[in-house]
Specification:
With 150 residues, the chain is mainly α. The protein is built from 9 helices and no strands.
Length: 150
C-alpha cells in the first residue's frame, strides 16, 4: 500500500478550513490549528492510553498525526476533575498563544472545546465517544455527552 501524502495534506487542509469556519475564526487557520491541537492533547492527557488508541483508530491520518505528535505514553496523567481544570490544561498545551487564542475567557475556551468535540463526530463513532465520556469525571462528561446526540 502506497502512502499518499498529498491526499492527507489535502484532507487536512479541507478539514482545517471547515473547522476554522465552525469556530467562527474567519480565515485564521493557525489559531484553529492551535485550538485543535491543544484540545486533542488535553484529552489525550486525561484518558487512558488504551482509550486513546481506540479513539485514534477511527481518526483519519492527518488527525492521527496531530493527536500523537509529542505523545509520551509513560507520562503521568494529571488529575483533572473539573471543567475549569480541563480548560487550563488545554491552555497549557497551547503555550504562550493561549492568551490570544482563548481571550482569558473560560466561556470562549468552553465554546472552542464544545465545537471541537462536535466536529469530531464526523470521524469518531458514538460508541467510542460514549466510552470516552464514561471514563471521565462527572464534571467533564458534558464535554462529550451533549455533543453525541444528533
Amino acid at each position: 500500500m502506497a502512502l499518499n501524502f498529498n491526499q492527507y495534506a489535502t484532507e487536512g487542509n479541507t478539514f482545517l478550513k471547515d473547522y476554522t469556519v465552525q469556530l467562527g475564526l474567519g480565515n485564521d487557520r493557525d489559531k484553529a490549528g492551535r485550538i485543535l491541537t491543544s484540545t486533542l492533547h488535553a484529552l489525550r492527557d486525561i484518558i487512558p492510553t488504551q482509550e486513546s488508541l481506540q479513539f485514534i483508530a477511527q481518526l483519519p491520518m492527518f488527525l492521527k498525526a496531530v493527536y500523537v505528535n509529542g505523545w509520551n505514553i509513560k507520562q503521568k496523567k494529571p488529575k483533572i476533575k473539573r471543567m475549569a481544570e480541563f480548560l487550563d490544561l488545554v491552555r497549557t498545551h497551547d503555550g504562550p498563544a493561549a492568551v490570544n487564542d482563548f481571550e482569558y475567557s473560560d466561556e470562549v475556551a468552553q465554546q472552542y472545546v464544545d465545537t471541537t468535540f462536535t466536529y469530531l463526530r464526523k470521524y469518531v463513532s458514538t460508541g467510542e465517544m460514549d466510552d470516552i465520556r464514561d471514563g471521565l469525571p462527572k464534571d467533564l462528561k458534558t464535554m462529550i455527552s451533549s455533543h453525541i446526540i444528533f
